[in-house]
Amino acid sequence: MDCTVSNVLFSPLKVGELDLPHRIVMAPLTRNRADQSGYATDPMVNYYSQRATAALIISESTPVSPQGVGYPFTPWIYSEEHAAAWGRVTRSVHAGGGRMFAQLQHCGRISHPTLQLLGEPPVAPSAIRPGGQAVTYLGMQDFQTPRALETDEVPSIVAQFVRGARMAFLAGFDGVEVHGANGYIIDQFLRDGSNQRTDEYGGSIRNRMRLLNDILDAVSEVWPVGRIGVRLTPENSYNSMSDSDPQGHFEYIVGQLSGRGLAYIHVLEGDMLSTARKVNYQALRARFKGTYLANNGYTFERASAAVREGTVDLVAFGVPFLANPDLVRRFREALPLNEADRNTFYSGGETGYTDYPFV
Ligand code: PHB
Question: Within 6 Å (CB) of ligand 1, which residues are found?
Answer without folding.
Answer: 30, 61, 71, 181-182
